[in-house]
Amino acid sequence: MENHYDLIVIGLGAMGSAALYQAAKAGATVLGIDRYAPPHEFGSSHAETRITRLAVGEGPEYLPLVFRSHEIWRELEAETGQPLLYETGGYIITPADSEYTQHDHWYKFVPKTAAIAANAGIPFDLRTPTQVRNHLPNVLMRDGDQAGFEPSGGVVLCERAVETQLALAQKLGATMNLNEPVVDIAFGEDTVVVSNRGRYTADKIIITTGPWMPGFLPQPENELLRVTRQVVFWFEVADPAIFSSNHFPFFLWAGDRQEDYFAIFPMTPNGVPGLKVLTEQFVDATDPESVSRKVTQADIDSFYENYVTKRLTGVMPNCVKASVCLYTSTPDEHFIIDHHPKSERVVVVSACSSHGFKHSAAIGESTVQWVMTGQSQIDLKPFGLGRFGGNHYTSPESSCPSAYPIYSG
Hints:
Helix content is 22%, strand content 26%. By secondary structure, the protein is an alpha+beta fold. The strands form 3 sheets. Strands 1, 2, 9, 10, 11, 12, 18 and 19 form an 8-stranded mixed β-sheet that branches. Helix 1 (14-25) runs parallel beside helix 5. It is globular, with a radius of gyration of 21 Å. The protein starts with a strand and ends in a 36-residue tail after the last helix.
């Protein structure tokens, strides 16, 4: 049949580019469709770098995914000669006493991460504020805060990773239709994808549309997803060598309240000539069509005064770049990887809840394995829709949760 594929991947950001590449690598006839031309700046897979860490305090179910993702990044580097992963190490800092409760993301996050790391054999060192300040004098850590350092953590070049996987997928025979919004999916014996340019059928479909995912799910499932606007800043620094990825790690730095959160990213070679920093907000919801992508000078000045000056020295007020990014989150902040509520032939992969990129390479591989063979080498069951209640198709029952070690040094 004309325009028929083994698999169609809708959305070609972090998860979609990985799925397209893995499907093509497995020999499937595969079509990837995206409303823009990735890597682009309208979704959740841009802004130069993403933090990665093997000691994932969000839960042990993530460790096999991030471990395998690190392997895949290295495999891609070996094949292309392009660096993707910088193992800079990284700090997690949380207050010893705060208003967080056990239901909050940052509640006892350092000791929780330390326990998960110890159980998995991942190096993770608890450090005092004095030790952190001696290591990095430009970091203004408070006395009384808790810190943990993971030497195996680092940053991934997110846009390059997307671009690399898409290029390799095409080289392996994948078809890519870019700047082609999908307007409908007809569920039935022949699953039909309708875009603004054509109709395509497939045996299986994977939907990885990030902040556009609510438009691909029916009620009440679409109400599980909440899209929020985030702003990323790059500030000029007095001495770039101090913040270089050669010796400056990342920081995930929780303050006394959720709105005090602050993240610092090391400066990578040939990157934006500024230090990437950000906070997060989950109060105001938006959507990818109406979100404001403008960052004002007032936004820049406020962020610099309220966040940068209180955590760092050696960072100048001149903002060399600012970018808007979108998070898509679930109520429990964990992923959704499951059948579409209307069809066993369609799988949805969202939402990443602000911590998905470091897992994306392995999620693409595991989801393609599950869709094509009925089982995956990494257990995807924890990410099923069933945990929210209601009647759903079963999540991947045939997973093999012990196929990959957690850490091997």
